[in-house]
Amino acid sequence: MAAQIRVLGLGTMGGRSAARAASAGYDVRGFDPSPAAREAAEAAGVPVSDDAASVVADAGLILVSVPKPEHVRALAAEVLVKAPAGAVVIDLSTIDPGTARTAAAELAEHGVTYVDAPVLGRPATCGSWTLVCGGPAGVIDTVRPALTSTVAARVVRVGETGAGSVVKIANNLMFGAINAITAEAITLCERNGVDGRTFVETVAESGAATVSNLFKEIAPKMVSGDDDPAFALELLAKDNRLALELAESSGSPAPLARAIVDVNEIGLDHGLGTRDSGALARAYAEFGGGR
Ligand SMILES: NC(=O)c1ccc[n+]([C@@H]2O[C@H](COP(=O)([O-])OP(=O)(O)OC[C@H]3O[C@@H](n4cnc5c(N)ncnc54)[C@H](O)[C@@H]3O)[C@@H](O)[C@H]2O)c1
């Protein structure tokens, strides 16, 4: 199956996914409401349409990569219900598990299977992503070859519908923590006479137990002021809010999630939402000593 791959959402993640599927030889077509995203996809060899419903009409496999749960809910109700019975929706977006379960139930009535399959990986590593999937094992097994020949190295089923979203939200809570603490540590150094670059270079090369791949990626960008968005701060803020909501609704303790959500909001108040998550360092640089 999945000779026909349709992609809804041609932004940073979906655009790369569509381009890789096209270059792997699949029959691909994409939709995005943004003309700029459609043009970029076309330039990358992806045929596009300005009509979402026509894109899914003959779909075997539909990849969805949209920013927020409300976008998934709208697509499920208005567009994905028009996919042919037997089609499989692989939702790469980071959303809450409740939205995943609602979309799955709605689409099941039309014979369409919905799998939440958020991405563990960065845009530049499309092709070696891990997709954490929630949904029926048999269907996930059926689409695995198409996914591993395009966007993913691993397609891991972690449970029923919604379970993939739980894993992703928990993972991005760790992302939010590392992002915020890196900005905070750099600022601490700079307020105490140590250049941020010196701190980052010294620690990154040290083999200290604190050095993660993420630290190595974002810390140099923070100190150089490069905030070209690989992962926009507003998306991280959304993910961390989802973590806090999930913690609150399940009675899971979340003192750090609360702090991370607050820090992200300060970055958004500084107008940094569309910049890279590492732009949080700029907001930190402007904090007074009292916070
Ligand atoms: N960028 C990352 O590093 C990264 C990593 C893992 C997961 N994610 C998640 O993947 C999702 C996409 O992230 P991104 O960075 O590509 O965001 P993006 O903003 O670059 O792209 C999202 C695209 O979705 C489009 N869109 C909005 N509504 C739509 C609709 N109804 N139909 C079709 N397209 C629609 C937007 O126009 C935009 O082009 C988000 O949920 C994000 O949290 C991002």
From TrEMBL:
InterPro entries, alphabetized: 6-PGluconate_DH-like_C_sf (IPR008927), 6PGD_dom2 (IPR013328), 6PGDH_NADP-bd (IPR006115), HIBADH-like_NADP-bd (IPR029154), HIBADH-related (IPR015815), NAD(P)-bd_dom_sf (IPR036291)
Domain called 6-phosphogluconate dehydrogenase NADP-binding: residue spans: 5-156
Keyword presence, Oxidoreductase: yes
Keyword Cell membrane: no
Protein name (record): NAD(P)-dependent oxidoreductase
Domain 3-hydroxyisobutyrate dehydrogenase-like NAD-binding: 162-284
Positions of the catalytic residues: K168
This protein's UniProt keywords: NAD, Oxidoreductase
Organism field: Phytoactinopolyspora halotolerans
GO terms, molecular function: NAD binding; NADP binding; oxidoreductase activity, acting on the CH-OH group of donors, NAD or NADP as acceptor
Similarity annotation: Belongs to the HIBADH-related family.
Domain of life: Bacteria
